[in-house]
Amino acid sequence: MPGLMPVVFVGHGSPMNAVQQNEFTESLKKLGRRLPEPKAVLVISAHWETEGTRVTDGAELKQIYDFSGFPASLSRLKYSPPGAPALAERITHLGNSGQIIPDRNRGLDHGAWTVLHHLYSDADIPTIQLSLDTRLTEEGHFSLGRLLLPLRKEGVLILGSGNMVHNLNDIAMDQYVQPYDWAHFCDEALKNSLDCQDDDRLLKYGDLDRSLIRRMAPTTEHFLPLLYITALRAKLEPLTYFHQGFQHGSISMRSFVVGN
């Protein structure tokens, strides 16, 4: 839509994608070259859950290595963009008083920096991160996403980082194994909700039955960033998938951009 910065949902998958060259990481690099240069980036990641909604407001975002058991090459990767305290302050006033709380100590988790490393490798774009409030319902997260809409008019790129299908209990060791039938079915159901712009169905996990929802998202934190991005989509605004596929059989890497 004219005058609106695109919004992006990324299925981020394994932290190892930060140091791998594959179809997914190449798609991120291409997207970074195609997007309008943002004044700032706001990330909603699966890996920052809090009681109450928080927003980073430090002048610098320290990189958080919030994982273990991975090769040393991953821990050697550095990505620490400048913060955006003025934008964080702006966001605290978008909701009701005290609804969004500034957090000066929080850094950038791997759900954010493993993606941004490919999108904006110079780490020179001011960046902030918004947490997932564990007390909110799916509808509450969607409504909070709607409050962020003015930022699209101000040149802020809003990025949701999670996975539409995310089950670590069933992952295969082979990163590139074919997806499980149930995982593919769930991914397609959610895609259909997106294609039809049926937000009510998406809020109900594509109207899947409970057993499939529990298998698709045993925990909801990787699904919830999707709701923020869909909440920011204008009616009939184009949605384009820039990457589709699976890793480890049970993790959907489906990623899309809303807008031109």
From TrEMBL:
It comes from the Bacteria. Transmembrane segments: none annotated. Keywords: Metal-binding, Oxidoreductase, Zinc. One of its GO terms (molecular function) is ferrous iron binding. Residues 14-228 form the Extradiol ring-cleavage dioxygenase class III enzyme subunit B domain. It holds the Pfam family LigB. Its cofactor is Zn(2+). PANTHER family: 4,5-DOPA DIOXYGENASE EXTRADIOL-LIKE PROTEIN. Belongs to the DODA-type extradiol aromatic ring-opening dioxygenase family. This is Extradiol ring-cleavage dioxygenase class III enzyme subunit B domain-containing protein.
